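dumping this here so i dont lose it
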């Protein structure tokens, strides 16, 4: 059985025989005039099928049937609606799997043209009490219409019709959250490619270059090793640009004395990496830069050391906050008692984000961060989710002193530092998937002086 078939079977086993599931491909988006943005399949659709074409709907229906004129109804557990083969369009846009490919290559019981979706979806939903579906897209109206049609005909057919919508977070995302060995193999490959890209960027980053030159080296390394695409838009921020969390222009000329913050990761086999390194463009940290960098590194190493089953991301964030707040007191950025500073969130102007997130097919991957209390209480409050083997998280503390940060000493203004690694939770602890990328002060300075 293929891994995609195993995933479909596991999903249906989780929801039971009276629940169907509908997953919709990412729509094509126009970029300008008749040119489209690059297509990247919806992660759920790819996770369950491996199919990477647009205009696709996947229906899993334990009690679903399809009806052809003059034939008895046929059971269809796995149905795909896809683009038919079209030699004329394939000259322009490339090969399509078509209906035959959807069944022979991707394992669908039945495949139909996307244009027949409105006609056939109601009969696939009939006989089910619920539908697994992710709200919030352009397809909502079509799904509701199909459910309504199934309800209208239920009286004549004697079949039930769905009365509930189940969010995938309750079922599918629990599966995606825990990575299997083949998924981890893809993630390790993505991390290895990303490691090389970061080291090459460090090696060429000298004063006088532009941020986009570093970005170009990163993207070239990704593609040269078979990565389909970046996992997200690369951030290459020099000088004060490093204090902008989602800086994307990447067009500034790097100056002597700048720190450069690169947040970049590739995608390989539809699995993401997510790494940040900060380094001196001239190969040497100044004393103020080093003091901030070592504070962030101390927080990151302390958090990584904590990772094991049972620890929560809330625990990790609390640790990062404590270490960074103590550093802010040491650096003269804030004043007072450590506990009071933490309670009043005095660190927030300089550390305004969380310490990590889930990582997988999506760079901010699916999965609940909070779960019901162990005692089953229903007071509406949840608890931080304990980490489990197979989960992958990022750990990415930072400190940011913008040019206008008047509370910070003048020597720190314009300094931004973030350090981020990808961490797999194992049975007995953790594995740092991106440990190979230089991170200590000495290793970073050495990497910056290396000949590319």
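and the seq i came up w/
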């Amino acid at each position: 059985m293929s891994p995609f078939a195993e995933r479909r079977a596991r999903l249906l086993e989780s929801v039971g025989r009276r629940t169907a599931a509908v997953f919709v491909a990412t729509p094509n988006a126009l970029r300008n005039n008749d040119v489209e943005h690059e297509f990247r399949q919806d992660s759920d659709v790819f996770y369950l099928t491996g199919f990477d074409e647009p205009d696709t709907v996947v229906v899993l229906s334990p009690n679903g049937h399809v009806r052809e004129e003059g034939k008895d109804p046929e059971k269809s557990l796995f149905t795909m609606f896809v683009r038919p083969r079209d030699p004329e369009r394939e000259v322009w846009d490339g090969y399509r799997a078509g209906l035959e490919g959807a069944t022979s290559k991707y394992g669908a019981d039945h495949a139909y043209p996307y244009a027949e979706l409105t006609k056939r979806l109601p009969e696939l939903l009939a006989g089910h009490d619920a539908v697994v579906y992710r709200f919030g897209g352009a397809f909502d109206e079509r799904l509701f219409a199909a459910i309504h049609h199934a309800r209208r005909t239920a009286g004549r057919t004697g079949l039930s019709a769905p009365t509930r919508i189940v969010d995938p977070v309750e079922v599918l995302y629990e599966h995606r959250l825990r990575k299997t060995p083949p998924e981890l193999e893809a993630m390790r490959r993505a991390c290895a490619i990303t490691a090389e890209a970061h080291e090459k960027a460090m090696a060429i980053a000298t004063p006088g270059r532009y941020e986009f030159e570093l970005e170009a080296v990163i993207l070239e390394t990704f593609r040269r090793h078979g990565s389909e695409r970046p996992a997200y838009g690369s951030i290459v921020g020099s000088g004060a640009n490093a204090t902008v969390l989602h800086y994307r222009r990447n067009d500034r000329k790097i100056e002597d004395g700048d720190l450069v913050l690169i947040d970049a990761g590739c995608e390989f086999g539809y699995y993401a990496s997510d790494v940040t390194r900060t380094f001196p463009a001239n190969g040497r940290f100044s004393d103020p830069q080093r003091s901030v960098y070592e504070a962030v590194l101390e927080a990151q190493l302390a958090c990584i050391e904590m990772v094991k089953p049972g620890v929560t991301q809330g625990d990790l964030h609390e640790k990062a906050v404590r270490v960074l707040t103590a550093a802010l007191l040491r650096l003269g950025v804030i004043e007072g008692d450590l506990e009071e500073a933490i309670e009043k969130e005095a660190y927030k102007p300089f550390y305004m984000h969380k310490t990590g997130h889930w990582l997988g097919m999506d760079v901010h991957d699916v999965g609940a961060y909070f779960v019901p209390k162990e005692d089953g209480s229903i007071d509406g409050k949840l608890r931080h989710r304990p980490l489990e083997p197979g989960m992958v998280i990022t750990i990415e503390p930072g400190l940011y002193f913008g040019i206008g940060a008047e509370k910070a000493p003048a020597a720190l203004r314009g300094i931004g530092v973030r350090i981020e690694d990808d961490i797999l939770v194992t049975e007995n602890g953790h594995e740092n998937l991106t440990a190979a990328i230089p991170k200590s002060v000495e290793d970073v300075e050495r990497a910056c002086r290396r000949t590319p």
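The chain is about 35% helix and 20% strand.
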